[in-house]
Amino acid sequence: MYKRFPLLFLLLCLSLWGTAQTRVIPGDEQTDRYFPLLEGKRIAIFSNHTGMIGDKHLLDVLLENGFDVTAIFSPEHGFRGQADAGEHVSSTVDVKTGVPILSLYDGKSGKPGASSMSQFDLLIVDIQDVGLRFYTYYISMCRLMDACAEHGKPMLLLDRPNPNGHYVDGPILERKHKSGVGWLPIPIVHGMTLGELARMVNGEGWLPQGRKCDLTVVPCLNYTHRTLYRLPIAPSPNLPNMKSVYLYPSLCYFEATPVSLGRGTGLPFQVYGHPDMKGYDFSFTPRSVPGAKNPPQRGKLCHGVNLSTLSEEETARKGIDLSYLIDAYQNLKMSDKFFTPFFEKLVGVDYVRAMIEEGRNADEIKARWQDDVTRFKAQRKPYLLYEE
Asked: Is residue 85 within 8 Å of 164, Cβ to Cβ?
């Protein structure tokens, strides 16, 4: 066929070559860039089920190549990604390899202690983040940066794209609301990869006592902040697809209300509802499922809104949309019983709750934090590894 149609064959080859050239290549696939740094080192990794190189986990690739992996640190949801949100992940071993899994919290200030830190010479970070201030993987990374700085251990970060890296949105966290779901003075959607964020943590002196981590980042190839990157693996049990990842910045605040956001259903972070919400045709019942053993409103018929019918393009481009939260607040008419104190930890400032209670709309609230967005974009610029 191709002898008869040489131009067709040439065009096909050019098309395939272009696809190969533009595929985003995460840091962990670039073994030629970091394998030489591992020779003769006792290695720890901070990773979970997302740390894959093709069809193999980074841990298996390192062991197959004869490297001495002595420890694993895993974040919320555990090394295999099956624990509930916030569930304590204790020290154990990886069943497949026998490599010890160490607790992130066995030392002071919620970070690994001297005993854990003495078990390795170099820490590799390879984990998929989703680019939100309340998504806790970056907080674990920051605590490990601090432990590495304190104990003189270098960190090698194998960067991955940010699926919400195409925009910045939300207020900058006020320090008084710093918590386990908000650790840095950054907007809710910071638009940075973990590699960029780690560079910023060092550069802005955000580690305790001004410590700096000995950091090396292997950047992604063929990635920019305009890239809409599709995650090959769900990053956690309740973010099963791209719609949930894109809607997460708009729906997570329901965690600080009695409203269900779909945990315990087939559409987590894609629906919201409550047994007492009125005027909706859509309904769902949260159940106990792996990754959501005791979801809000478990076993109760909830009435509300199904956002899974929105297109991925619409959810990706919308940014933070507080209209869903405002809709539920106004529908339930619970006044000050609607929000819990956890809301300020998620949103990071006091004025959002006040504006919702005053009857302000989502656009008015969003306009309030635009100066934060502009200021942060300028502040982060020296630390970016990829074109905006």
From this structure: no
Distance between CA atoms of 355 and 361, rounded to whole angstroms? 8
pTM value surpassing 0.85: yes
Q: Which domain holds residue 337?
A: 242-357
Distances (CA, A) of 250 to 99, 122, 145, 233, 366: 38, 37, 29, 21, 12
| Domain harbouring 61, CATH code | 3.40.50.12170
Report CA torsion sign: 259, 262, 263, 268.
Answer: negative
**Nearest alpha-carbon partner for 61 in 158, 177, 168, 138:** 158
pLDDT band (50, 70, 90) for residue 90:
low
- How many residues does the structure list for the chain? 388
Q: Which of 16, 143, 145 is nearest to 76 (CA)?
A: 143
Which of 91-95, 126-130, 135-139 is predicted with the least confidence, judged by mean pLDDT? 91-95
Mean pLDDT of 26-49: 97
Domain stop point among 231, 260, 280: 231
CA distance 16 to 34: 28
Domain final residue, candidates 231, 254, 279: 231
323-332 vs 242-251: helix crossing angle, rounded to 10: 60
Which pLDDT does position 100 carry in this prediction? 93
pLDDT one-digit tens code per residue, 104-120: 877 667 789 999 999 99
Q: Structure tokens of 75? A: 């974040």
Kind and range of the H or E run holding 282: strand 282-284
Bridge partners of 64, per DSSP, are none
